[in-house]
Amino acid sequence: MECKFIESSRGKVYYWIQKNKFSSNTILFIHGLTADHTLFEKQIEFFTKHYNVITIDMPLHGLSRPYVDFSFHNTSEDIKLILDREEINKTILIGQSAGGYAAQAFALFYPERTSAFISIGSTPFGSNYYKKSELFWTDNYSKIARLFPYKLYCRMSAKNTCITEDGQNSFYNCLVKLGKKDMLTATNLYYRNFKNYDEVNFSCPVLLFIGEKDSVGYIKRYNKIWSKNKKLPLIYIPNAGHGANYDNFNFFNIKTDEFLKLYF
């Protein structure tokens, strides 16, 4: 894939793109908190056969550092800049965890440019889904994480994110490259900002994925409520944790492809 970047007053946001000359449909993969674009390395070969594919390093992650004035609103503007540069009118958004927040923000502010949204272990915008006691932990996550020696934190976080050795190693390497200072900055800003947005009433197809063994917070419960309230299809990925698209990539790729073929 070709590495490029867009630049604004906030900083540079890097992305990787591979176009398919036989397809007019584009998938944009957005990784979660403290990961980077390599979270989707198990999807590239599969989806570039039939789609244009873009992966990004989210602001404050990977190569997209330094970056100032972070918000999911600003991130949605960065995504729009990428699409404008590549002359792509609409995109299918696939967001893992906090990457799902960036995707929801884009769908909120640019619904006319959103073809579909696929969530992997993310949760919905909208304060009505969350108890104050639950938000306390996200508000103070960086304070708690600061107490751990960083290599220990990386090992614990990797094991909590993925259940496969390959997935754990991939996520561990992302964390090590990110470093403790930037990890704390990103987690503080991301967790605090997601509460600032109203729930999205999608005007496009939506599919929710959750790893069958995802043990992060209350994500399973939030997805059940989200699915019920908005009548959205919810698929459990067997033998997979929070990084479900990496843990069981074959299942995820096939089910995503089946879903997309219904509309594109």
TrEMBL record:
Domain AB hydrolase-1: residue ranges: 26-125
Record-linked SUPFAM superfamilies: alpha/beta-Hydrolases
User: InterPro entries, alphabetically?
Assistant: AB_hydrolase_1, AB_hydrolase_fold, AB_hydrolase_sf
User: Under what name is this protein listed?
Assistant: Pimeloyl-ACP methyl ester carboxylesterase
